[in-house]
Amino acid sequence: MDVLRRLLDTPERTVAGLMSGTSLDGIDVAIARIGGSGRTLRVETLACRHTPYAADLRAVLLRNVEAATSNVRDLAQLNALLGRLFAEAVRDAMDEAGIGALDLVGSHGHTMHHVPDPERFGGVEGVASTLQLGAPSVTAALLGVPVVGDFRSADVALGGQGAPLVPYFDHALFADAREHRALLNLGGIANVTVLPAGGRADEVFAFDTGPANMVLDALALRLYGEPFDRDGRHAAAGTPDEAALAGLLADAYFERLPPKSTGRELFGTEYVERLAARFPGAPDDALATACELTAHSVADALARFVTPRHPLDVVIASGGGVHNRHLMARLADALAPVPVRTTADYGVDPDAKEALCFAVLAHEFVNGVPTSLPSVTGAARPALLGTLALP
User: Fold this and answer.
1) How far apart, in whole angstroms, are the C-alpha atoms of residue 30 and residue 104?
2) Residue 351 bridge partners (DSSP)
3) Mean pLDDT calculated for residue range 310-335
């Protein structure tokens, strides 16, 4: 157990964070030197790298995130394969940046299914679950480095949504004494963290606002055979259908009070198929409408659930959606006069932020610090998030 003893005795660590998001585009790696804890965290980013998924693997993932088409053999194989690919992605990032050794890895895994609201299952009431694949033990064995994974299950076990998990990181790095800030992540799903000016961690709240790249990318693939709408060009060339948009925004999810989280269970393949069917022969209009859906659902969520309590001074965006110029323009219009910036303005790469978050959560796990925020997830109490796999 020398490796565990060394890890516990090392106050400052070189940690790799791994993220595979619901947009199914690939693996994000961020490597950082991390010390301290909570509001005293010190994070120096050393490297960040994106490894795209091959088309065949993306197809297998897409098939298996849908309940109607998944199977247990695929899930078993994916669990092992993703664990291996995560190790390779970390090694590539280390080699590219000339980093010789790591102390720790934080691996979110890839979310295959998320059932945070308790239901009757197997004859038992109150069953809730979340499943992320990418076996931490495989990654640890191949890298020879301890890996913390399975970050969501403890919060779900305590009655929480298990998401979002980024708010602990957001509060530690972005909270401000004078500004009310909202951190907006534009991944497959859009989620927001609200940081009241001068607020404590237990005053932070956050939730998923609705679809972002998950729907946009799926439409681009279905309608154009492209993995995403580069710069939002197709959406910018289209005209939103106001009647269709109103119908989409009438979905009950948008009216639900936080805490709440969502994913492919609601905004997956069937949702995209229904949306695309509304626009026969008008693919640009479909993407334009989907962009409006993201922009309006974010703006509406902030107006309903945030600004009555905390009038915002700034919205700070991250995630792949920040590269969609049309989406960012529509967000700026929808949120005006509140300015929309990106985390790059605050020294954090928008593409690396979520991976960097899981490096921080792994570091805090070793510190023994609970990183779930009940004000965010609705859990009964804060939980120490993660499980440790030793090489």
Assistant:
1) 12
2) none
3) 97
26 half-sphere exposure, CB direction, 13 A CA radius = 17
Mean model confidence pLDDT for the chain = 95
pLDDT at 226 over 80: yes
Domains in the chain, start-ordered, CATH in brackets?
2-162+350-389 (3.30.420.40), 176-338 (3.30.420.40)
What pTM, to 2 d.p., does this model score?
A: 0.91
Q: Tokens in use for 286?
A: 């479909």
Taking only the tens place, the pLDDT of each residue in 81-125 is: 999 999 999 999 999 999 999 999 999 999 999 999 999 999 999
Q: Which residues contact 111 (CB under 8 A, 6 or more apart)?
A: 22, 65, 130, 131, 132, 263
From the centroid of its chain, how far is CA 329? 22
SS3 80: helix
Q: Which residue has the higher pLDDT, 66 or 239?
A: 239
191-215 CB burial, b ≥16 within 10 A, e <16: bbbbbbeebebeebbbbbbbbbbbb
On whether the CB atoms of residues 51 and 27 are closer than 8 A, the answer is yes
Secondary structure, 3-state, 168-186: HHHHHHHCCCCCCEEEEEE
**pLDDT mean over 299-314:** 96
Running DSSP on this structure, what letter comes out for residue 308? T
- For 309, counting Cβ atoms within 10 Å of its Cβ (0-12 exposed, 13-18 middle, 19+ buried), the class is exposed
Alpha-carbon distance of 355 to 105, in angstroms, equals 10
